[in-house]
Amino acid sequence: MSVDQATVRRIAHLARIAVTDEEVPHLQDELNAILAFVEQLNEVDVTDVEPMTSVTPMAMKKRQDVVSDGGIADLIVANAPEREGHFFAVPKVVE
């Protein structure tokens, strides 16, 4: 894939970057070099490579999946104009 000067100007416009006419050819070369490198990555065989979460082997940190009210339900509804127990009371809006 090759980037032309019109595409460089459009990318600069979308990125809200001011680019002069003198800078366009240089940016075009840089973008084309980046895209050439990305195309090289498509040639790498990764069929036997397992997905990683980090570059160093480590176990995922996991927390217990428990349901709790946080222990501060009274504080949460303390300033509510109306409440019923630990719940906010709101007017009915749908008939």
Automatic annotation (TrEMBL):
Pfam families: GatC (PF02686). One of its GO terms (molecular function) is transferase activity. Its EC number is 6.3.5.-. It catalyses: L-aspartyl-tRNA(Asn) + L-glutamine + ATP + H2O = L-asparaginyl-tRNA(Asn) + L-glutamate + ADP + phosphate + 2 H(+); L-glutamyl-tRNA(Gln) + L-glutamine + ATP + H2O = L-glutaminyl-tRNA(Gln) + L-glutamate + ADP + phosphate + H(+). The keyword Metal-binding does not apply. It is an enzyme of class 6 (ligase). Keywords: ATP-binding, Ligase, Nucleotide-binding, Protein biosynthesis, Transferase. SUPFAM superfamilies: Glu-tRNAGln amidotransferase C subunit (SSF141000). The keyword Ligase applies. InterPro entries: Asp/Glu-ADT_sf_sub_c, GatC. GO terms for biological process: glutaminyl-tRNAGln biosynthesis via transamidation; regulation of translational fidelity; translation. Belongs to the GatC family. HAMAP family: GatC. Allows the formation of correctly charged Asn-tRNA(Asn) or Gln-tRNA(Gln) through the transamidation of misacylated Asp-tRNA(Asn) or Glu-tRNA(Gln) in organisms which lack either or both of asparaginyl-tRNA or glutaminyl-tRNA synthetases. The reaction takes place in the presence of glutamine and ATP through an activated phospho-Asp-tRNA(Asn) or phospho-Glu-tRNA(Gln). Heterotrimer of A, B and C subunits. This is Aspartyl/glutamyl-tRNA(Asn/Gln) amidotransferase subunit C.
